[in-house]
């Protein structure tokens, strides 16, 4: 669990930097949403954040590609459908695992607590269905 | 201290944390969500650590974005349901999807553009654009 705690600490630190120094929520869905539909003067920090994410990811990938193995197979149809669901859902809910699950929960936002509970429960139900009813393949 | 370097560094720390904790691997996420199977509690530790840091940060932050004044409405719950469906199917949420796509993971090559398309579809359909990242708080304060 050391990697999990350390990783969580770094994720928290990255989000904390944005909160303390920029007064912004590091909700990735929101950051991407603001790139998909940009407002003037509100774009550069979003792009910079995403570029930072890419830099970190690519750097570590060159160092340890094994850390990136998906470990599951899904058909393109399922992946496209899942992507659409996440894209629409996170915008509708105005947040994702980082926006609601981390930043919102840390602020004891009731909206975020509810949203997080709902998407966790639904995701767990889907996984149960896939792994224990449908045999794990999709 | 608004600078692109702050945002860049924040994103860097964020993604390094995602990778180190294994959160960019759908198998690990699904193992956490698989309460009926061999449960992997990693995500719980990741989120606990992240939330702990952010609770402190929220106390230190000189300016916090306004929390949404919307109640717990159908959009919130409906959106969370849709998000949960997609996340449970693919094991990706937006952050890991960015990193996985950028490093050319096959699943993400299908997932990430579809996610962006979903966001664009939402934008096209929804008349009102809500932003939870703090910009809306600034805009509405100056309106």
Main attributes of the structure:
A: about 140 residues; mainly alpha; 6 helices; globular; B: about 140 residues
Cα separation of the termini of chain B: 24 Å
Strand runs of chain B, count = 0
Give the overall shape of chain A, derived from the CA principal axes: globular
Q: Oligomeric form of this entry? A: heterodimer
Mean pLDDT of chain A: 96
Helix run count of chain A:
6
What's the arrangement of secondary structure elements?
The complex is a heterodimer of chains A (138) and B (143).
Chain A: H1 2-22, H2 28-36, H3 44-63, H4 76-93, H5 99-106, H6 110-133
Chain B: H1 4-20, H2 26-33, H3 42-60, H4 74-90, H5 94-102, H6 106-125, H7 135-142
Helix pairs in contact in B: 5-6
Architecture overview:
The complex is a heterodimer of chains A (138) and B (143). Chain A is mainly alpha-helical and 138 residues long. Chain A contains six helices and no strands. Chain A has helices spanning 2-22, 28-36, 44-63, 76-93, 99-106, 110-133. The longest helix of chain A is centred in the C-terminal third of the chain and has 24 residues, at 110-133. The two termini of chain B are 24 Å apart. At the A-B interface, helix 1, helix 2, helix 3, helix 4 and helix 5 of A face helix 1, helix 2, helix 3, helix 4 and helix 5 of B.
């Amino acid at each position: 669990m050391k990697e999990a705690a350390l990783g969580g600490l770094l994720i928290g630190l990255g989000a904390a930097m944005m909160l303390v120094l920029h007064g912004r929520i590091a909700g990735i869905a929101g950051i991407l949403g603001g790139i998909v539909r940009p407002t003037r003067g509100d774009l550069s920090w979003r792009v910079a954040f995403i570029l930072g994410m890419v830099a970190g990811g690519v750097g570590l990938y060159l160092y340890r590609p094994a850390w990136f193995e998906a470990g599951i197979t899904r058909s393109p149809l399922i992946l496209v459908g899942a992507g659409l669901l996440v894209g629409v859902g996170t915008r509708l809910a105005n947040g994702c695992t980082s926006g609601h699950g981390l930043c919102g929960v840390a602020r004891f936002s009731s909206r975020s607590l509810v949203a997080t509970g709902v998407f966790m429960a639904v995701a767990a139900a889907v996984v149960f269905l896939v792994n224990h009813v449908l045999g794990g393949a999709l | 201290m608004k600078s692109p370097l702050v945002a860049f560094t924040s994103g860097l720390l964020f993604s390094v944390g995602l990778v180190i904790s294994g959160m960019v691997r759908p198998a690990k996420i699904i193992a956490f969500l698989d309460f009926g199977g061999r449960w992997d509690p990693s995500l719980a530790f990741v989120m606990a650590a992240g939330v702990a840091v952010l609770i402190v940060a929220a106390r230190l932050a000189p300016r916090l974005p306004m929390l949404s004044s919307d109640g717990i409405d159908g959009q919130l719950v409906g959106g969370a349901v849709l998000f949960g469906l997609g996340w449970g199917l693919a094991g990706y949420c937006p952050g890991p999807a960015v990193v996985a796509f950028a490093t050319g993971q096959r699943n993400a090559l299908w997932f990430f553009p579809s996610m962006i398309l979903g966001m664009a579809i939402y934008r096209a359909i929804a008349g009102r654009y809500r932003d939870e990242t703090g910009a809306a708080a600034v805009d509405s304060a100056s309106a």
